[in-house]
Inverse folding.
């Protein structure tokens, strides 16, 4: 299903070698390692299991460095990811998106392959669908119920009577194994105080839900929380068994604006080539448009609007502080411009010059690329071309 191919000709080549065509998604090996280590240390300090979310890179090579063991635990956002990681030996997964009934056949097949895949739901209808499916097939599927701690997206509020109703609707082979939440509000405001508050609400909300179920005699073995801002801001995770986070592996400009990381911790970037100029407008045109950078403009509502990304030199250093950004994009064209100081000059950005663009959001930016290129920072050479999965 996921065949291995011949060695990639880009391995061992410098980033300015013509063999390394653009656009390409680059991963700084040293920064990646520092980010992965930081999350492991945080989880250990908080006394919880780290269950990393693999959706940012979707790559088994990075996952093996990120997880606590080759078997997991880990989190995925699509069943294709679950199939890919299960085929590569990951046996402890949570599919952290509410289950659609027609996907239960794929869930069954993944579990039959030897992977303990757990699913998520937050309503009685879904619980009954899973219960009926497992009864008809005489199989077991472990289920987590999603808790809404901040009104961000989906889930059941910790105080709701619906919580007990949903759990009791899981019958037969639909086995309740715990609760899961995501502190999405940690992305809404900048600053450490907001992240700490979101982490407290996340922990307090899901622990309250777990306590309510235990008071009814229901075991809650898994109490799962997580987001990148809260894993680094949490002060107390008493009552929580595991923490999930994903974008921390790469970080991005959105996380920088939140104050979760600094620019020099952003591990993912897009390699691009200058293809032209609009001298009168002070613009430089590159071959990475919104297909290469994604349409995510999340920083537009933050204190620094980076447009489609921050422009860096070949070594990944911002070319002029925060001044030069991808201010516009078409499908395959990126428009670079200075937002402060003097206009860009064509002689400083000759046709053929290679640049790196830091993305607003690492997850959608990395997603469409066939391979992720792992880069040795000191030599600016490609160390590896990493497989990853694309699609659903």
């Amino acid at each position: 299903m996921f065949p291995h191919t011949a060695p990639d000709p880009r391995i061992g080549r410098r980033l300015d070698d013509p063999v390394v065509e653009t656009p390409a998604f680059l991963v700084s090996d040293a920064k990646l390692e520092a980010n992965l280590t930081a999350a492991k240390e945080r989880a250990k300090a908080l006394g919880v299991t780290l269950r990393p979310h693999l959706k940012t890179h979707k790559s088994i090579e990075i996952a093996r460095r990120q997880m606590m063991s080759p078997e997991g635990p880990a989190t995925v956002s699509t069943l294709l990811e679950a199939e890919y990681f299960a085929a590569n030996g990951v046996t402890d997964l949570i599919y952290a998106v509410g289950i659609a009934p027609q996907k239960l056949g794929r869930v069954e097949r993944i579990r039959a392959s030897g992977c303990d895949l757990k699913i998520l739901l937050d309503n009685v209808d879904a619980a009954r669908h899973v219960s009926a499916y497992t009864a008809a097939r005489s199989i077991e599927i472990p289920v987590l119920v999603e808790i809404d701690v901040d009104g961000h997206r989906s889930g059941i509020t910790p105080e709701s009577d619906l919580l007990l109703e949903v759990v009791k609707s899981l019958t037969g082979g639909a086995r309740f194994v715990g609760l899961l939440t995501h502190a999405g509000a940690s992305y809404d405001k900048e600053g450490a105080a907001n992240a700490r508050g979101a982490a407290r609400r996340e922990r307090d909300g899901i622990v309250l839900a777990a306590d309510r179920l235990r008071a009814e005699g229901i075991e809650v073995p898994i109490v799962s929380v997580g987001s990148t801002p809260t894993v680094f801001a949490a002060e107390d995770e008493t009552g929580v068994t595991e923490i999930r986070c994903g974008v921390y592996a790469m970080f991005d400009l959105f996380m920088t604006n939140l104050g979760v990381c600094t620019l020099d911790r952003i591990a993912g970037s897009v390699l691009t080539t200058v293809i032209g100029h609009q001298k009168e407008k002070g613009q430089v045109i590159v071959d990475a448009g919104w297909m290469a950078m994604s349409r995510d403009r999340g920083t537009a509502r933050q204190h620094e609007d980076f447009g489609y990304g921050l422009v860096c030199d070949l070594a990944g250093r911002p070319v002029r502080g925060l001044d030069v950004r991808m201010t516009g994009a078409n499908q395959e064209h990126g428009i670079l411009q200075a937002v402060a100081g003097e206009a860009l000059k064509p002689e400083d950005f000759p046709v053929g010059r290679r640049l790196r663009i830091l993305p607003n959001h690492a997850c959608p930016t990395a997603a469409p690329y066939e391979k992720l290129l792992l880069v040795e920072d000191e030599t600016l050479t490609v160390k590896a071309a990493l497989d990853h999965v694309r699609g659903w």
About this structure: Residues 25 and 369 are 7 Å apart (CA to CA).
